[in-house]
Design a protein that fits this description.
Blueprint lengths: L28 E4 L1 H4 L15 H13 L9 E3 L25 H11 L3 E7 L16 H11 L3 E5 L5 H17 L5 E4 L14 H7 L2 E3 L8 H13 L1 H4 L8 E3 L12 H13 L4 E3 L8 H7 L2 H7 L8 E5 L4 E7 L5 E7 L6 E6 L9 E6 L4 E7 L3 E6 L4 E8 H4 L10 H4 L14 E2 L1
Parallel strand pairs: 1-2, 1-8, 2-3, 3-4, 4-5, 5-6, 6-7, 15-17
Antiparallel strand pairs: 9-10, 10-11, 11-16, 12-15, 13-14, 13-16
Length: about 450
Amino acid sequence: MQRSVVIFVLAFSAAAWALDNGLMRTPPMGWLAWERFRCDTDCLNDPDNCISEHLFMEMADRLSEDGWRELGYVYINIDDCWSSMQRDSQGRLQPDPKRFPRGIAHLAQYVHDRGLKLGIYGDMGTHTCGGYPGTTLDKIETDAQTFADWGVDMLKLDGCYSNSSYQEQGYPMMSKALNATGRPIAYSCSWPAYQGGLPPKVNYTLLGQICNLWRNYDDIQDSWDSVMSIVDWFFDNQDVLQPAAGPGQWNDPDMLIIGDFGLSLDQSRAQMALWAIMAAPLFMSNDLRTISSDARAILQNKIAIGINQDRLGIQGRRLIKEKNGIEVFWRPLAKGSSALVFLSRRSDMPYPYKTSLKELSYKTGVYEVYDVFSEKLLPQMKDSTEFVVSINPSGAVMWYVNPVAEWWKEAEPGRFSEKLIGPKFHQHHNEVDAPLVL
């Protein structure tokens, strides 16, 4: 079996460049309107799904009442098509008066009253991608102050209807303007996505100084092919992208589409697992009012979330890309722990993949392994113990791995605790020397 084993070099230094606003020390989590609701402004014929204060208030209710907020999903993010087609008499952006009759400040207060945060959308150009007023260079300070006055907690700044020189001026200017308002406003930049996502056009050191997160690549669509195209781009370019991420500065592969129409249950687990490995922002774009119990269980999986939110903030890597369609991904976590994902790109049947932790470059020792989605603690295994893991077509198996010696230390901040995984995760199991079928 041929393997392309990656020698991984971890860059801890990138975090030193993080935007100095103290925000998003772990990847942000929440709900974002775009992929599911797009630019639906027809509130006359589609009142429950149009971009309006009604939609965002209902989603805020769901985050606060259905167990999402306690898990970290705290942002309610407006995307394009929220504004009036004209600025007000003082040159400020204003919401559409029919769809947001009480204004954005009222919506922000509604969100804040539920222990949540409000995000909003703008565009560094003459118009937004949907044709609404953009933020030109002369309006940057005005718009930053407007958002602060409204009580906004996050700004996503798109890049339609502009050019590279305009963006080179505008994105850093907006960062400075947001900080100057005195209100902590997290800053999501779409700048690299408009410049191809890679050096030399994209300077990730500079991005880390001005932005909390950034869109690197294409918009996600509601399909497995779209998810895989994003995964391929991010991991094909991991040597460039992985060192750029860290506390306060995140690569953003775009929204979670779990709970929509395009992914199977196995594919949904795979997206959640891979976004956790990538230390990606977890912004769901779905209908929380009608989401299925299966999709909810994936999105509310405490261990997957814990892996995503690991305090070290090191983005994971793809270790192996097999010719048979199996890929293996790895992420180092705090306190010597790690996460593994086994992904199948096959479309035929469950595939029995045979390997060992030693072959995946783990150090000599004995390890506890917890299967994240089956929620089972596996028998202890030595690094040299061969095992077989069965991976469903277009599915993934995710493991949380910890050296046995670490389990018996007192829990510290950043660790998974019994509160998250239950006491059964800490029970002692006999070591297994024979090959395991898992």
